[in-house]
Amino acid sequence: MVIQGSPNPPDTCVEQFASGGSTHEMTTIRTTCPLCGDVELVPGELALELTAMNGTGTYVFSCPDCGDRQRRPANHRVVAILLATGVAYEVKDDRGPITESEIARFSADLDRADWAEQLR
Ligand SMILES: [Zn+2]
Q: How far is 111 from 113, CA to CA, in rounded Å?
């Protein structure tokens, strides 16, 4: 992923825009589509899903050429860059609600004769 254009935070961009500066350059984010190769996006075309607790996540975009929806892992650096460019984000808490299989596994563990040993 390559970020092009102004690295300024969004409020600085707004100031430049408000003052009528014609030098305002839209930040573009270059990434790749498996079908189309390099594609350029603006921050509004991406969404970031942050994983609670670890600061990494996944970014999602629809390819501007073929329209395919892509999901890519975002490491700490990519997350920081995307947040700096003003990409919308959502925090995913992967602890989530407890599932049936977790309850089943928990029950199975309780049935084990040595469960008390596990507490030591
Ligand atoms: Zn594409």
A: 6
